[in-house]
Amino acid sequence: MYTSISDGIVEGRGDEREEAFNERLDRSIKVEPDDWMPEAYRKTLVRQISQHAHSEIVGMLPEGNWITRAPSLLRKLILLAKVQDEAGHGLYLYSAAETLGTSRDDMVEALLTGKAKYSSIFNYPTLTWADVGAIGWLVDGAAIINQIPLTRCSYGPYARAMVRICKEESFHQRQGFDVMWKLAHGTPEQHAMAQDALDRWWWPSVMMFGPPDSASPHNAQSMRWKIKLFTNDELRQKFIDQTVPQAEQLGLKIPDPDLRWNEETQHYEIGPIDWEEFYRVVKGDGPCNRERMQTRNDAWNDGAWVREAAAAYAEKHAAKERAV
Amino acid sequence: MSGRISYVLRFGDNALVLAQRSAAWVAHAPIMEEDVALANVALDLFGQAKLWLEYAGELEGLGRDADAFAFHRDAAAFSNVLLVEQPNGNFADTIVRGYFYDLWASLAWEELTRSRDERIAAIAAKSAKETAYHLRRSHDWLVRLGDGTECSRERAQHAVDRLWRYTGELFLGDEVDAAMMEAGIGFDPASLRDPWLERADAAFATATLARPADGWMQRGGKQGRHSEALGYMLAEMQVLPRSYAGATW
Amino acid sequence: MSRDWPLWEIFVRSENGLAHKHVGSLHAADAQMALQNARDLYTRRNEGVSIWVVKSSDITATDPAESDAFFEPSEDKTYRHATFYRVPDGVKHL
To answer: What's the mean per-residue pLDDT of chain A?
Structure first.
């Protein structure tokens, strides 16, 4: 990326460097792009950041579906601004990932060929306008819980991108809740629409935090490297505790007969999560996986001639300048 | 409906229809940076539409707000020019449509900032800043596509050829335009034709594109006679408010 | 794609009086496009009065591995800092 003066000089100093690296992590000194870092740290970050970026981009699709059908000009403006933000967030994150030596081309190819993962919540369809509200309220709500700790992660560009994202994200969740509020307190049909959306989006949102800690072996290393600051279950619990009262205020029922408040632990307890569904969707058999990928591939392929044209034009004019 | 209300609605409908068209590109653009840029254009245009439609409602005094005009009128009541309702097609079609409109709008706002109607002048002044940016963008893309690859030039030329027949309507005045001109509120659409052609010719030259020969210019949008495309667009846009009578969102 | 749409680093001055700050990067085919895209991407919320775009390949950076030799010599020249000097009691405006 940047032209730095030297490159990985001396082998055999590996252990020393790794020790120094870990010591800086312990002192909460950020890692910046040209600093030495263990290959595994770099690889893990590339995967995590690019996955996050892909999620933002694919995440534009379920809500993007409803831009042309938003039921008022204000809702349309808000939704358009939100989806635009998501494109922007994807770009901030690709930008952060590129500082680690990967290219946008490589990352996009990995996504389009199915090699890279993205948050599987976006493999669910948005069937009604209430789904737009549910996504803002639940999915963005979950994302914020995940993202705020990342503003303190060890890798500088990622942390800075997350600060920018979190600032912009705050209206995303609020507008979703606002949509749900209006529907839940609207006509009987609108209330039913809101309840139906909650029924379909609750469990996938709970699953957004990933497998239970007991089934997540990689977490320990990520936590040592300070690129993951809380466990999946910790974040999931936070989400549940903050969201259940919101559902109550909306006057909507969470689709879980086993949901109950535990007075001792001061936390909500939920019923069993269907991890089979989770893995099935992750593997590619969710309701919309193929459609999402097809849409992204179409945009990319249909746009090839445009990208080529812009490049050709730039080349022609750079050549003209050189000739002068 | 009074001449002034009709007049205001025309600008509002142009912005609304073009905004709705532009918004459909989001998440489908050739590169993610363009998703952000096209969303920005759509946001600006929806904002402008709101201002015009709100004013129309106030002038009318029957309690209609911007949403009432946007979601509860049939195609025949829309008064946008035919140009803006043309389908998105490929990226070249969209850019050329945008360029033709942006160029016209920038000239129109200049006229309208001098309107005796203060509100119209104010909306035009605000729109002028946004349109200046849109015009730069659409002009630059026109040039890149025209002077890019053989393939892009072909598509750009095809878009120009196909959309040329809708540009005439931009300069065609009717009784409403005449009345507004006389009242010092509006401008003569025909007066924009030469400056528009001059700038378009310059752009075509830079883009290595050819200006089509003038043939019959399609018309009728301003008077509510639209192409088949508008009906489909409105059906999608209006489905929720029309299906849920009395609901607020 | 990006082979011919290079990466640009973006610097934004958010208001007069402040210096340009690095905010991230984006891909664009040429400098004009980079400026326009940067405006849409990094100043949506009125965060800018001036934008610089620089091709990433045009940036030369110091090498952290050399940072000891490059930066440390300034560490022991503490006489460059005001705090090195003791100001006698009662002397003002120093």
So the answer is: 92
SS3 C90: coil
Q: What is the pLDDT of residue C75?
A: 65
- Kindly report the pTM of this predicted structure: 0.92
Q: What element of type H or E holds A269?
A: strand A267-269
Tell the CATH topology of B3-243.
Ferritin (1.20.1260)
Taking CA atoms, what residue in B is nearest to C35? B137
- Domain C7-62: CATH architecture, name and number where available: Roll (3.10)
The pair of structure tokens assigned to A178 is: 């606002």
pLDDT of residue A288: 94
B7 phi, psi to nearest 5 deg: -60, -50
Alpha carbon distance B92, B99 (integer Å): 10
pLDDT tens-place string over residues B58-89? 999 999 999 999 999 999 999 999 999 999 99
What's the sign of the alpha-carbon dihedral B87, B93, B96, B98? positive
Q: How far is B226 from chain A (nearest CA, A)?
A: 20
How far apart are alpha carbons C42 and C47 in whole angstroms?
7
Q: Report CB contact under 8 Å: A104, C30.
A: no
**Ranges of each domain in chain B:** 3-243
| pLDDT for position A2 | 39
The residues with which A261 forms a beta bridge, in sequence order, are: A268
**Residue holding tokens 């009262």?**
A245
